[in-house]
């Protein structure tokens, strides 16, 4: 159902429409950026367009207590036909949304303009590549926002080059392997990343409508008036930063949009309804393994059992955020047998958990938000990336570029593999070196996020663009 809630009686100087990709952590990350912009530009009205389910979650009373008054949600259709029966294909819901999204967003923008006033700028998730054409039709600036880590953007920009190699193929063996390495050495930011570490969407543009959409990114970004990235100049390889700036001179690295750096002080432990913080208070410093699989990722049931068996046997204190519908997969009696050294919860306040002094390692699926929250707190990672979006690429960056974590043996959870990784990080000398690297990266991040840093200046520039209705490349 198409609707904008509660049209405002206040007459703003500018009306910026934000268009979200309503899956995974994307809408929350974009809303966090819009919140910061709304507070910095109080004379500007922001309409936030996403699906009804997404907006209901984001703007529910419990989550909207810090919502500035100049942000209004606007619902667009999710593209799912009435009485549709899902086939079980993983990207089916995304593809249905993508297929209908251009028309649905146009309708939503028309409604927002009618109720609030003429739109002066579009700020959109960069995945929505059709947004540039909509902005052109409206004669307004288009500012896409890249929310994953910067490295994966290069993979999508150069996807044609990667496709050409994949089409040529080969007969396998060392020659083909070295050719793959040589190809990536010519792509800015990906010199240490192999083809098998790239997002599937960058390898196969025929896989789904979603893949096809992402593989247009390199062609449409030059149309953008500015490109916002949830990253820092200081974390970006010079070759990648230079290449992105050459393609989009209006590149703005505004810092991680989903978290505050430095992290704010922890709240009182008794305010955490999940009981995570009070439980962590009783644990020794840097002794706990925090396990989280994200909101979208699904691990095979046998891997969840293997992980549980490893946690039970090695007796390292653990806090496991495991969705309620997966709890039945745990071995019989697991909760009772591990009650003295572990805690399983259906949800955890992750940003606060990772900021707690008791956390010693984060076992993660390598989603961008989880990675950012870990490095912001100097927490080493044990990586079991799911083959989804940029998670595998992130794991490669964590282990081989930043060197602040390890991937589990064989890329899947096994009892022995998890035990080996936990002992490496928590006990062995190599783990101490990894932890030292994580602390060094945290310090670099704190410097990058300083009030006089590049990110602060780029954010100020973004606010000026929105407030002046002028774009960098006009």
UniProtKB/TrEMBL annotation:
Write one Gene Ontology MF term: quercetin 3-O-glucosyltransferase activity
Keywords linked to the UniProt accession: Transferase
Q: Does this UniProt record's set of keywords contain Transferase?
A: yes
InterPro entries linked: UDP_glucos_trans (IPR002213)
Q: Which SUPFAM superfamilies match?
A: UDP-Glycosyltransferase/glycogen phosphorylase
- Gene3D superfamilies reported in the protein's UniProt record: Glycogen Phosphorylase B (3.40.50.2000)
Q: Which family does it belong to?
A: Belongs to the UDP-glycosyltransferase family.
Q: What is this protein called?
A: Glycosyltransferase
Organism per entry? Hevea brasiliensis
Q: Lineage in the entry?
A: Eukaryota, Viridiplantae, Streptophyta, Embryophyta, Tracheophyta
């Amino acid at each position: 159902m198409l609707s904008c809630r509660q049209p405002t009686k206040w007459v703003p100087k500018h009306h910026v429409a934000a268009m979200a990709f309503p899956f995974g952590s994307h809408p929350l990350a974009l809303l966090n950026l819009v919140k910061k912009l709304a507070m910095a530009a109080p004379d500007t009205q922001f309409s936030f367009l996403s699906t009804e389910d997404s907006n209901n979650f984001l703007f529910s009373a419990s989550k909207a207590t810090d919502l500035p008054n100049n942000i209004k949600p606007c619902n667009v259709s999710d593209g799912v036909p009435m009485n549709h029966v899902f086939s079980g294909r993983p990207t089916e819901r995304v593809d249905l949304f993508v297929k209908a999204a251009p028309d649905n967003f146009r309708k939503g923008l028309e409604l927002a303009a009618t109720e609030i006033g003429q739109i002066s700028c579009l700020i959109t998730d960069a995945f929505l590549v059709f947004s540039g054409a909509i902005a052109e039709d409206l004669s307004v600036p288009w500012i896409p926002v890249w929310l994953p880590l910067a490295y994966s953007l290069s993979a999508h920009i150069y996807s044609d080059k990667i496709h050409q190699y994949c089409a040529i193929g080969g007969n396998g063996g060392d020659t083909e392997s070295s050719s793959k390495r040589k190809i990536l050495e010519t792509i800015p930011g990906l010199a240490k990343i192999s083809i098998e570490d790239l997002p599937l969407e960058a390898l196969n543009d025929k896989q789904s409508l979603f893949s096809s959409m992402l593989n247009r990114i390199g062609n449409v970004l030059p149309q953008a008036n500015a490109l916002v990235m949830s990253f820092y100049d200081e974390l970006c390889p010079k070759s990648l930063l230079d290449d992105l700036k050459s393609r989009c001179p209006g590149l703005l690295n505004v810092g991680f949009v989903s978290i505050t750096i430095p992290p704010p002080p922890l709240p009182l432990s008794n305010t955490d309804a999940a009981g995570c913080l009070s439980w962590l208070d009783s644990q020794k410093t840097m002794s706990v393994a925090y396990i989280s699989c994200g909101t979208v990722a699904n691990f095979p049931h046998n891997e969840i059992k293997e992980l549980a068996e490893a946690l039970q046997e090695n007796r390292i204190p653990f806090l496991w955020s495991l969705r309620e519908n997966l709890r039945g997969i745990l071995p019989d009696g697991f909760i009772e047998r591990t009650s003295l050294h572990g805690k399983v919860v259906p949800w955890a306040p992750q940003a606060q958990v990772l900021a707690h002094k008791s956390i010693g390692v984060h076992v993660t699926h390598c989603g961008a938000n989880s990675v950012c929250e870990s490095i912001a707190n100097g927490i080493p990672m044990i990586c079991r990336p799911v083959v989804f979006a940029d998670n595998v690429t992130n794991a490669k960056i964590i282990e081989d570029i930043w060197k602040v974590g390890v991937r589990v043996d064989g890329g899947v959870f096994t009892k022995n593999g998890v035990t080996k990784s936990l002992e490496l990080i928590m006990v062995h000398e190599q783990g101490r070196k990894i932890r030292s690297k994580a602390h060094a990266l945290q310090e670099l991040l704190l410097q990058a996020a300083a009030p006089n840093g590049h990110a602060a200046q780029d954010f100020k520039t973004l606010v000026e663009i929105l407030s002046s209705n002028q774009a960098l490349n006009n």
